[in-house]
């Protein structure tokens, strides 16, 4: 990797590295749809083993999808970054078989912290949850040059 | 179930019903340690398939544990209740093999909404995350009489 | 007011009523710049009596500006609405003399709850804080017909 | 100030310095009731100019009280500290004349960040709001030796 790589190529290299080493994202069957500097889009199909006792998708599964989209977007500049705090608003119940898409975008980046918004929509393009994550940058890279 | 059941017995009956119908909680190997009116304690062992690309526990798995503890505590009075919003602060990385305990307690209950605090600790009794959930009560019961 | 008023005219009538009866907004010298269905824009000049002991603007004053923008936007359809929960991320210190603008927009509205995002920027168009508010609709109107 | 001052005496010295230089806290008539390492208690009487257009206390005024209690508690060890993010849940309306007490306690402190919980109660000891704040420590002291 060169000293000044193309930001889009770098984001793709980081995402390729991440997805090859990401058991939890694989466990839940998430798929990376798009990646770029500061943004990412993932999808997840809600399966029977993701339901809670009320017969709808467990909030933790929706959070996990949003959190993965957050991770892919905030690491996309090859600065290793962790989540320090997140909030999620649940707006609509999600059913078995629903295809949920999480779209992450960067709202703020300065110093070592950033704020990212993730919108979760279903296959009818209804918003099912809104997630906001605060990132903290470590002093390390995701992929080496 | 009688019209005025013992609150502790009711909480146990509700939890027994929930845990028998809760695929996501089972998928992640959660165990219910304690239940009572307005409180619950669950544990989860972090396995290899819960890790993220940084080699630590995915935030979504920790959120899921907290969210389950939240659900068991806020449904414990046999009022069907859903999460409307949650926040989580991640304080320490969690490793494969760690045994995480989520302890939920009711901070406020009035009208149809409640606020619950869930503390996540590891096997060294270090706090690894703090979760706060807002509940919204539906017009239904969890178990019938 | 007619049964089906123009939404923009209704938003203006609601805002005019609110601002005439809003001591806290007046105390802090806020000014309403724009109003419409689901959105609002307010400004506030940071004065010496809004500073904290570190010599920068007290977080409560910035929250108050965001909260007012939230209130004007979520009441703009003449449904009396209250804040149930809010989060704020502070991104940059705000100095005496800074002119802060809060821009509120509706992210979700369904049933009796809504989610609103408020962005606070300074006179250099830098984002100084991000606020997200959850609203709960009462069974009342702001202005009568 | 000695190299190893008594923590309680240090907390009092810090608070005395802060309160002498805190215009916003004074503007809203807040009073410091108690201070110690990692905790603080402040009170505020709700006056007519703190009301919003619905005739109840403006959320920004309650947030400001909680935020001040947060600031006094997280600076109490003489490490200059700022708020990075806060959440507040509004539980009950607050009326003119109510005497609100904010009690801040430290939930977590590690590295440069901490988490503080602030409970707001009225004169009937009802909880009116719950606030959680995340702190970030600067490389400076509040008072010098």
Quick recap:
The structure is a homotetramer of 145-residue chains. Chain A is α+β, with helices and mostly antiparallel strands and 145 residues long. Chain A is 23% helix and 38% strand.
Largest interface: C-D, 44 and 43 residues
Strands of the biggest beta sheet of chain A: in what spatial order? 1-2-4-5-6-3
Rg of chain A computed from alpha carbons, rounded to a whole number of angstroms: 15 Å
Mean pLDDT of chain A: 94
Number of helices of chain A: 3
Distance between the termini of chain A: 4 Å
- Tally the structural domains of chain A: 1
The low-pLDDT segments of chain A are none
Keyword list:
Thiol Ester Dehydrase, Chain A, 6-stranded antiparallel β-sheet, globular, alpha+beta, 6 strands, 145 residues, homotetramer
